[in-house]
Amino acid sequence: MMDVENLGRKLVEKIESLSPMVENVARSLYEHPELGLEEVFACRKLVDILERQGFWVERGIAGMKTAFRAAKGRERPVVAFMAEYDALPEIGHGCGHNLIASVALAAGIACSEVISPEEAQVTWVVLGTPAEETIGGKIVMAEAGVFDDIDVAFIAHPGQRNSVGGASWASWPVEITFHGQASHAGANPQGGVNALDALVQAYIGIRNLRNSLDDSVRIPGVITHGGDAPNVVPDKTTARFSIRAKSSKYLEEVLIPRIRTFAEGIARATGTTLEFSHYEPLFRETLKYPQLQDIVERNWRRLGVEISRDDAGPGGGVTDVGAVTWRTPAIQIGFRIGDVRGHTREFAQATVSETGIQGALVAAKVLALSALDVVAERGIIEEMKRQLSAVQNR
Ligand SMILES: [Zn+2]
Fold it and tell me: Helices (DSSP H) in the chain: which residue ranges?
């Protein structure tokens, strides 16, 4: 039997002692922000630290050179802490992924030192997941099977409040292109097929689909190419729509087919031809695991932090963590680093503030204590996996 109380105390102490590392990682990534799939500095920095701590590291997994898997141990269950480290153009670490990396390292290192992989029969993994903001690196990793041998995965995202993690939406952006026939709009309009007229009708019609859809859909769009010159009948026009809904099933089975059928109808009516594609992958909604939420909530309280279980969160957010939750039990918690909102320069500054670093340390403690609980009560993993396969087969 594991002495959970005692191991928990040691985890908390160990993470306290990692405070300089947490700050150093947060600050150096803050000072060297890198865009998705270009996180060479960040990846090397994290891998160096993990190798010094005795982790065995595989780089370039899932075909992405800045993705990695660092592991200690050979037994099941395999428990992963996910790091992110990509920044945003212009505003650097305005989404705080530098702190996500700090938390994952602190939790992974503390667990691997306090809870021996051999004695506890567990494998501790720190997973380097690049390009969250762009291609959704975890979607690529999920498709490449990276999560198939991971039994539970944790991640902590900075924000305005401490939480057990909220819902995120499903998203599958669409690009539609109409091909017509160019002609002189003044001298020979009858010789053309106007691709812009088709696109404008499609734009209005797709927006109007909302009148007969669930309230919880978002279908904003823009025309990205509307023609070249007013005196030429446009022969090619393109629009992009950011399509979001609460459930990926609804997206796949109802919303996307409705939009597609509608656009095809416009093409037939206008004599144009339609190209229909997705310019980003399907981001699935985050599945909730109540068992993980209960454990996390208990550990926030244990650390003296009151949280609200009202985890509905603001609607419309999307994350590639959703893809992970469809492969293996996983949870993304939120931790507070101040009042500023994400995707701003002020938020980037908050990640290296005293409150930011303290927030990251508490989040690392919550994740490490929760991992300990999952490892100590093994039945939970089986229970969550049964829940997952029921959803997968729905
Ligand atoms: Zn983010």
Answer: 4-17, 19-31, 40-52, 97-114, 117-120, 137-143, 195-208, 248-250, 256-270, 290-302, 321-325, 345-351, 354-376, 379-392
User: Is residue 218 exposed (0-12), middle (13-18) or buried (19+ Cβ within 10 Å)?
Assistant: middle
Ligand 1 centre distance from Cα of residue 28 (Å): 18
Boundary of a domain, candidates 277, 302, 322: 277
pLDDT tens-digit readout, 321-354: 999 999 999 999 999 999 999 999 999 999 999 9
Q: How far is the CA of 308 from the centre of ligand 1 (A)?
A: 21
DSSP 286: P
For residue 158, the CA-to-ligand 1 centroid distance in Å is 8
CATH number at residue 367: 3.40.630.10
Of the chain, the end-to-end C-alpha distance in Å amounts to 37
Question: Ligand 1: distance of its center to the CA of 98 in Å?
Answer: 10
What is the residue range of 77's domain? Answer: 4-168+286-392
- Cα 336 to averaged position of ligand 1 atoms, centre (Å): 13
Q: Which residues, in sequence order, are CB contacts of 380 under 8 Å at separation 6+?
A: 291, 295, 373, 374
Look at residues 280, 282, 285, 292 and name the one whose alpha carbon lies nearest to residue 322: 285
Best CA proximity match to 170, nearest among 291, 87, 281:
281
On the question of pLDDT at 90 being above 80, the answer is yes
What is the average per-residue pLDDT within 49-54? 98
Band the pLDDT of 148: cuts 50, 70, 90.
Answer: very high
Name the domain count of the chain. Answer: 2
Ligand 1 centroid – CA 100 distance (Å):
9
pLDDT digits (tens, 9 = 90+) for 171-195: 999 999 999 999 999 999 999 999 9
In this structure, the answer to whether residues 65 and 143 fall within a common structural domain is: yes
CA 211 to ligand 1 center in whole angstroms: 32
Query: How many angstroms does the Cα of residue 57 sit away from the middle of ligand 1?
Result: 24
Q: In what order do the strands lie in the sheet with 221-225?
A: 221-225, 236-241, 174-179, 273-277
Residue 312 CA to ligand 1 center (angstroms) comes to 17
Question: How many Å lie between the centroid of ligand 1 and the Cα of residue 97?
Answer: 6
